[in-house]
């Protein structure tokens, strides 16, 4: 692939890695100066993402990636097929009702404002006073 930097230099090499910030690691690199009169050959180089002006990727690579993604999409199940959605177990457990926030089992436990079976001490409020 070819990488042109904001300062005009170009780097042509094999892509090894590219991260979230578009930092690029290339191997077998040929660097060309801004004027195009000087060349350097490097075994590998690292280019910081914010110095990159543009990237040129060969068409064969793009076509190959598109083929692979379309193939992997056709292998997958269509959405909605499989295990189903939601809980699906509502009403199947004995008791039928959970004890959670906003639900009262009549025993007066939990963190409400007292009531039957409440522990002594502060009868409501935020415990200040």
Automatic annotation (TrEMBL):
Chief subcellular location: nucleus
InterPro entries per record: Lsm4, LSm4/Sm_D1/D3, LSM_dom_sf, Sm, Sm_dom_euk/arc
Feature: compositional bias, Gly residues: 109-129
Name of protein: U6 snRNA-associated Sm-like protein LSm4
Gene Ontology CC annotations of this record: Lsm2-8 complex; spliceosomal complex
SUPFAM superfamilies given in the database record: Sm-like ribonucleoproteins
Subcellular location: Nucleus
Biased composition range(s): Basic and acidic residues: 65-78
Any one biological process term the GO annotation gives: mRNA splicing, via spliceosome
Pfam families named among the record's database cross-references: LSM
Functional note: Binds specifically to the 3'-terminal U-tract of U6 snRNA.
Cross-referenced CDD domains: LSm4
GO molecular function, one term: RNA binding
Protein family: Belongs to the snRNP Sm proteins family.
Location of region: Disordered: 65-129
Subunit: LSm subunits form a heteromer with a doughnut shape.
Domain of life: Eukaryota
Domain Sm, residue spans: 1-61
Gene: LSM4
This protein's UniProt keywords: mRNA processing, mRNA splicing, Nucleus, Ribonucleoprotein, RNA-binding, Spliceosome
